[in-house]
Structures are given as C-alpha cells and as structure tokens.
Automatic annotation (TrEMBL):
<feature type="region of interest" description="Disordered">
    <location>
        <begin position="189"/>
        <end position="210"/>
    </location>
</feature>
<keyword id="KW-0677">Repeat</keyword>
<keyword id="KW-0472">Membrane</keyword>
<dbReference type="InterPro" id="IPR002126">
    <property type="entry name" value="Cadherin-like_dom"/>
</dbReference>
<dbReference type="GO" id="GO:0045296">
    <property type="term" value="F:cadherin binding"/>
</dbReference>
<feature type="domain" description="Cadherin">
    <location>
        <begin position="248"/>
        <end position="371"/>
    </location>
</feature>
<feature type="domain" description="Cadherin">
    <location>
        <begin position="33"/>
        <end position="101"/>
    </location>
</feature>
<dbReference type="Pfam" id="PF00028">
    <property type="entry name" value="Cadherin"/>
</dbReference>
<dbReference type="InterPro" id="IPR020894">
    <property type="entry name" value="Cadherin_CS"/>
</dbReference>
<protein>
    <submittedName>
        <fullName>(California timema) hypothetical protein</fullName>
    </submittedName>
</protein>
<feature type="domain" description="Cadherin">
    <location>
        <begin position="102"/>
        <end position="248"/>
    </location>
</feature>
<dbReference type="InterPro" id="IPR015919">
    <property type="entry name" value="Cadherin-like_sf"/>
</dbReference>
<feature type="compositionally biased region" description="Low complexity">
    <location>
        <begin position="192"/>
        <end position="205"/>
    </location>
</feature>
<dbReference type="GO" id="GO:0008013">
    <property type="term" value="F:beta-catenin binding"/>
</dbReference>
<dbReference type="InterPro" id="IPR039808">
    <property type="entry name" value="Cadherin"/>
</dbReference>
<dbReference type="GO" id="GO:0031175">
    <property type="term" value="P:neuron projection development"/>
</dbReference>
<dbReference type="GO" id="GO:0016342">
    <property type="term" value="C:catenin complex"/>
</dbReference>
Amino acid sequence: MPRLTKCYPRAMTNLVPSSCQVIENSGYGADKFTMVRNNDGTGSLKIVQPLDYEDTLQSNGFRFRIQVNDKGEDNDNDKYHVAYSWVVVKLRDINDNKPQFERPNIEVSVYENAEVGKSLETFKATDPDQGGKSKVKYAIDRTSDRKRQFSINQEGTVSIQRNLDREETPRHQGGGILLVLAQEGTPRHQVLSSGTRGLTRTGGRVAQEGTPRHQVKVLAIDDGVPPKTATATLTVIVQDINDNAPTFLKDYRPVLPEHVPPRKVVEILATDDDDRSKSNGPPFTFRMDPNADDIIRASFKVEHDQKGANGDGMAVVSSLRSFDREQQKEYLIPIVIKDSGNPAMSGTSTLTVVIGDVNDNKMQSGAKDIFVYNYMVSACSQPDRGRAGGWELLTWDKTTPSCSGQNYPLLLAT
Ligand SMILES: [Ca+2]
Ligand SMILES: [Ca+2]
Ligand SMILES: [Ca+2]
Ligand SMILES: [Ca+2]
C-alpha cells in the first residue's frame, strides 16, 4: 500500500508518539486508511483500500479521526498521553478510465454500390473521468481501413468515404481445416467441394468462399493526459451487385489442323466474379457476337450447351469448313457470354483459333508463344520441316528466293 502522507496535527507535536492509529468507525474513509509509525517517531497514513474518484461516495473525500499516544498502546485512556485529530483526505481525479462504448460490436449490411457519403451506424462512447465531463473524440483505426473507405464524424457516425467493391473486399474465412480431394481421372470441369466453408475448385480455378466484409475498428479517445482509448468494431458486410460480366475461364488457344473437314474445335467455359449464390454468375449463355464479320460467321459456329460445365453452361465452337494455314494462320472469334443476374451482364471475349500445320509431328494443343526465329541456312537447299533445337518448325517463310547461305526467318512454336 502506498504511503499517503507523513503528518501530525499541531496538537500532537508535543508528544513523542509511541503508537498511532486510525480510530475505527470514526468517519467516512476510516476503513480505507491505517497509521504506521516511522523510525523517526513520526507517523504516516497508509491507504489500505482502493480509492476511486469515480465512486460518487468518495469523490467528496474522507473525514475520520486518528489517535496518538506517547506511552504505548496500553495507555489509550490516559488523557495526558493521548491526542486526537480529524483527518480530511480529498481525492484528486486522474484519467484512469477509458471511454466506454454503448455498443462495442455493430454489424451492418450494405450493397457494394452504396453511394459515397451514406451513413452506416452511429457509435456512442462516454467517459466517467472528470466527473463524467471528459470529452470523447472518434477516429477510425486506419490499419483496419487501409483504403480509407470509411470516415467517422465527431457524433460517432460512420459513413462511406470511398466506393465499396464486393469483389475487392476481403473474404471472411471460416475456421477449421479444409481438405479438397480430387481423384485421378476426375473430369477437369467437375466442381470439387469440401462440404465446408473454404475453397472450391472449379475447372482448375480456385475461388475463395466466405462473406466479403470489412472489420472497421472505431476508436474513442478521451481528453485526459495522457489520453486513453477504447475500441469498437463495425462489421460491414458487402452485398453483391451484378456488376461484372462473365469472361472465359482461361486463355483458350485451340489449334485446328489445316485441311480437315468441319469438326469440333474447343469447349469454352466461363467465370464471373459476382456472387453465384445471388444468381449474378452462372448459368451462362454463349453465342457468337452477331457483329462478327462474314468470314468468321462462315467459318465457325458457336453453340450454347446449357447442360455443360455441370449446368453452368458452356460453348462448343466448331469449324464449318477446312482451312489453309498459308492463307491465314489464326482466326479471332468474338463470343458473347451473358450471366443470370437481374439485370444480366454480358461481355464479349475473343477466342483465338490457330490453324495448325499438317505434318508428321502431331501438334500440341494449347501451343502458346509463336515468334520469329532467325535460322541460319548454310546451304542452297531449304531445311527440312522438323525439329530445330527443341522447337517445332511450323512454317518455312522464305523471304529471299536466292541461294547464298543467308538468314531465313522461320516460324517456330513450342
Ligand atoms: Ca478517461
Ligand atoms: Ca478518474
Ligand atoms: Ca459484384
Ligand atoms: Ca456477373
């Protein structure tokens, strides 16, 4: 217990005290203090019970009696050797309380297209120090709002300061361990689900589940020196609006061999960033863009298969004629994909079909980088088609007909 003070009333100074004590039940606060005798013969008042200015009974202070005698404790009744005094103790306020929120956890739900300036909720905090008159200021802990999407005014009202975007909002992850099991030979587009919250794998794409939400930390700071701070949490659940059009699930790049009869070229799946549980994503519908040029429309067809991709819908792209790579090496097919939102969003993605060379080496599907490679031809004969340094020779594009050991640009592909 801290020593409060070392003092003796003037009436006692002619005594050389051998004992001193607070008289029990002598006044308010008598139970909160005790007297101790110091080595130099003086006495000190010690605090033995917690004091609290915010306790309305205590804020006016204490008043009780102490007694000193100079002949040992046996002589309490000897009036020549005993002196009494009233002691008045006043409490001084310190800033020992942080503000208190009426509601420290509030959850709100808002659509991602809510306008800037919209008020979400009002927090109220009070502080018991300074006789309840301590002023509280509000702020947002910016580590919980790094994009500064929220603001708070001095009435404690939180508003939207910058546009929310559900698709850019962190997902709340459920607890527990997630295991996704896939069997060898599982169709590529099969949806694997763990049955718990967590990850879903669709056609090779990993999507995070969970509700997009912000956890905004609201601070209430009092005006003490030093100030004390309390924290509340505003959970902002961001609801989906259908504001994304579907796109190709991946970068399809099918190779169609030249000089073959009409055939199926590729199956196309789509993806959509919006909330599929709100029907803002699949099922998708596919069609060739009606603005595709005549050559494309005469060369390919795009059929919608609504049962494809486990009911998400897919496009089947087929050729309608045969092609000659010498004529044109690739075709760009614009495909319109529409989602199921209300209103629906649709977007056009472009499929590149590469016309492949027919040769002994079977083309690898999904060939990617095609670039010009300088191949040194040292003799007068053209090089045979085949492999050169690990690259497959696609086309021999002779630009100079002369025969004098020079560089011929060659088109190669992996
Ligand atoms: Ca305070
Ligand atoms: Ca206080
Ligand atoms: Ca959205
Ligand atoms: Ca959508």
